[in-house]
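A further point concerns the way the authors explain their paired sequence and structure data. The central task, working out the structure tokens from the amino acid sequence alone, is never made concrete. I therefore recommend that a typical entry be quoted early in the introduction. An entry of this sort, consisting of the sequence and the corresponding backbone structure tokens, reads as follows:
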Amino acid sequence: QVQLVESGGGLVQAGGSLSLSCAASGLSFRTYAWGWFRQAPGKGREFVAAISRKSAYTEHADSVKGRFTISRDNDKNTAYLQMNSLKPEDTAAYYCAAGMSPNRGPETYNYWGQGTQVTVSS
């Protein structure tokens, strides 16, 4: 059974940092691209970042570019999202997802985690 488990969320002051992890099991981790998405109250699911199977290609949303960095460790079956210089508008539930390619559209991903809450206070 496929399981994706996010961790690392919490409450942090504006300007601070958090590191999110997504541990995967039940699938061939190295054959999947990886994505991070977020959803704030009253808003739809928003693309954050994506990475290819061997980390040769990454992309980040304009709203987080220069502040967030996606990475993966295929030996540990884990994806990461390092978040620096956090802003109150980054407050959302963050989800990791596995798919066939590192696209921006959530409809292209096959598996999703349960999410971890990130709250940034002023």
User: Anything to note?
Assistant: The mean pLDDT is 96.
